[in-house]
Amino acid sequence: MSDVAITCCSTVDLSHEWLERIGVGCLPFNYYLDGVPCKDDFGRTHSPRELYERMRAGAVVKTSQVSVGGYLEHWRPLLKAGRDVLHVSLSSGISGTYSSACTAQDQLRAEFPDRTVHVVDSLCASSGYGLLVDKLAELRDGGMDVDELHGWALAHRLDVQHWFFSSDLTFFVRGGRISKAAGAVGGLLKICPVMNVPDDGTLAVKEKIRTKGRAERRVLELMEQLAQGGADYAEKVFICHSECLSDAQDLGAMVTRSFPALRGEVEYFDIGATIGCHTGPGTVALFYWGTRRL
User: Fold this and answer.
1) Phi, psi of 78 (to 5 degrees)
2) E strands along 123-199, which residues?
3) What is the phi/psi pair of residue 258, to 5°?
4) How many angstroms separate the Cα of 280 from the Cα of each of 85, 134, 242, 270?
């Protein structure tokens, strides 16, 4: 076992099995479904289908980040066991959990002066956040120590490309990310906004494109422009979706044809409850290593 413990939150939108395989600890976010507290635990509490059915039926959803106490409870045993901790947080542009993690970090540094605790603001979200965590686990297994991992994460976190589109604007409107008027017009015209995560770690609508097929092709075009190595891109690709696997697989097939040097197959994941409470169903997101963010 490495003396570096890497941890993250369930908003990495990978899977429990994936995180176990790469040896990364996970702290669950929480959400409320019609006032009932639930764990964002990779669909074990509520499957994505059940969650979105409840949302379509009018269920009130609210998300809740990891508390300072949650971080303390998770990290303290690791430090007592003589391990250093590198925690990678969901983007501070999306959630306040980074601040909570930093508060816990400061307390534990005082408690364990001979150990190292680093918290990284990923400036990433969903399976893009997961792509960064996956790479750090690989580098740890290759021999990097906690300080080297921390420096690498800070230097390369903005290399993660996030591009996504949605064919259902209902919950973007409900959450205030798209106005009601724009949502109504978008629905009539079959607008699929193409969005990304810019350098500040927020969410941004970059283009408004008619029809899902055109949105898929535009996301692919952007990968052709931005991927490291261009058409010779040879790293991993993650795609996640909110209850629209066939759309995700359509995009994945396009990526596979256009980038024959991919490292392994395109990996597909569900958008977890925390992110899904804001996107609703119908969102597809593509993640890869790029040269810059737009």
Assistant:
1) -65, -45
2) 160-166, 191-196
3) -85, -20
4) 34, 26, 7, 12
- Please give the average per-residue pLDDT across 225-251, as a whole number: 97
In the chain, which segments carry CATH 3.40.50.10170? 4-157
Give span(s): CATH 3.30.1180.10, the chain: 159-289
Q: What is the CA radius of gyration of the chain?
A: 19
β-bridge mates for residue 9, sequence order: 27
159-289 CATH: 3.30.1180.10
The neighbouring-strand residues paired with 5 are 85
Tell me the CA distances in angstroms from 118 to 3, 93, 98, 149, 170, one per residue in order. 14, 19, 11, 9, 38
First to last CA, the chain: 39
What DSSP designation does 290 have?
A: B
DSSP one-letter code for 242:
S
Say which DSSP state 197 is in. -
Number of C-beta neighbours around residue 23 at 10 A:
14
With b meaning 16 or more CB within 10 Å and e meaning fewer, what string describes 62-101? ebebbebebbeebbbebbeeebbbbbbbbbbbbbebbebb
Specify the CATH number of the domain 4-157: 3.40.50.10170
Residue pLDDT, tens place only, 252-291: 999 999 999 999 999 999 999 999 988 889 999 999 999 8
